[in-house]
Amino acid sequence: MPAAVKISQVYKHYGNLTALDNIDFEIPEGCFFGLLGPNGAGKSTLINIMGGLVRATEGSISILDNDVNQQWRQARYSLGVVPQELVIDPFFSVIETLRLQSGYFGCKNNKEWINELLEILQLTDKRDTNLHKLSGGMKRRLLIAQALVHKPSVLVLDEPTAGVDVELREVLWEFTKSLHKDGSTIVLTTHYLREAEELCEQIAILNNGKLAALDNKPALLARYPYRLLQLTLTSAADKIPESLQDKVQTISDNELVLRLHRDHDQIGAVLESLRTANISFSDLHTQEPGLEEVFMSLTNKI
Ligand SMILES: Nc1ncnc2c1ncn2[C@@H]1O[C@H](COP(=O)(O)OP(=O)(O)OP(=O)(O)O)[C@@H](O)[C@H]1O
Ligand SMILES: [Mg+2]
Known about the structure:
The protein is an alpha/beta fold. It contains 11 helices and 14 strands.
């Protein structure tokens, strides 16, 4: 089975800046894949190379075995890209934009599909509205519809929920989940790590143009060997025992959060140290790490 997306030794230089530094990985067909990373990591650059909007300085990308430069037409047909930037032509209406896009892909009998897209993305009552009259969130919805008119088997979403209200975010996730269930490959970039954690089966983390991690979700979460112990304090914790000082994540008048190593720190011993130091508490609970902690540690934020 060919990879949905095969990225081979891709470099992108902008003058002295290396936006992508030897990126090399594959996205399997049918996968719900998360491409994550802080601002400026190189995510959009990589996505724009996939979509043929930016040329790699070195290396290649193929979509279902079609090179995005050499077999650009076939590659483009398999791919729908929702760009991060809201670039649209203000002279057309919503429906005209979708018809034009269909024409570009040679799709003739897709009226029903367009109506379905308008309905799902709650744009039906805006079908004849000119694009310059749409709000930011509505433009984003249109970009999503536009990426899907030709029913691509690989859908790439570059921050699709930026500026989108909560209700539509839910609708959008249900929709992408159903496309995925029907066999589409979904590549998602988002800064909402909880959403990525819920949706994505595999996750790549880019940092400074380099691949910092690539793994399936459970393996990635297991990489972070800590859990948090939260204590509601009933006495001041001004004298934290020395053995716990390097484990303090946050401390305030009424809450102490300790970061404990999963293998090396025993909760019983930690509580005993607190008791000896006369630090009392009324409640405690532990929290397993999520993607946010893994992300922060891999991108050197903690
Ligand atoms: N056309 C360009 N000319 C010069 N530098 C660019 C250009 N496009 C992107 N860059 C730089 O390349 C790096 C990667 O940018 P990119 O847009 O890919 O990041 P990103 O991971 O998508 O970030 P964000 O989360 O903010 O969208 C950044 O340092 C950016 O300033
Ligand atoms: Mg970006």
